Amino acid sequence: MSGEPKFLGHPVHQMVVVFPLGLLGTSFLFDVAHKTMGGRDWSVASQKMLGAGVMSGLGAAVFGLIDWLAIPAGTRAKRIGLLHGVGNVFAMGLFGASLLLRRKAHAGTAPFLLSGAGFCLSMGTAWLGGELVDRLSVGVDDGANLNAPNSLFHKHANTHARPAETRV
What we know:
The chain is mostly helical. It is built from five helices and two strands, in the order ββααααα.
């Protein structure tokens, strides 16, 4: 599939999505640590990670939207991409609401529950993203194979592709 923004031969969205996933997932784990072990440091770290995760998630969403627009209409990939994107918008909303509630002195358990819901939803949308790449080959070079040339030196992997019958 062409049209997606690339950096050094690889789709940008697949590179940058690791930041919000890692930051937001870890923020929830730090919330769990805070709830089970106490200590203000876990809560402060979680709040900082939430802020960075939501901001980086907005950046990843821009590249995801550009990728989605390049997927042909009427395909399973287009439908899954829509679910993936809309689900991530809701997950960012849950994490963002959690972050805003933490500004209140007595927010109670609502921020924790919102982050937990965002975490669960983002794991589902991450699976959908994996389905797009691993199952439907969205963003995967048509000539990809176990012996494809380095993306830094060849524009497309199929420049040195093996015969189709020997591909994995």
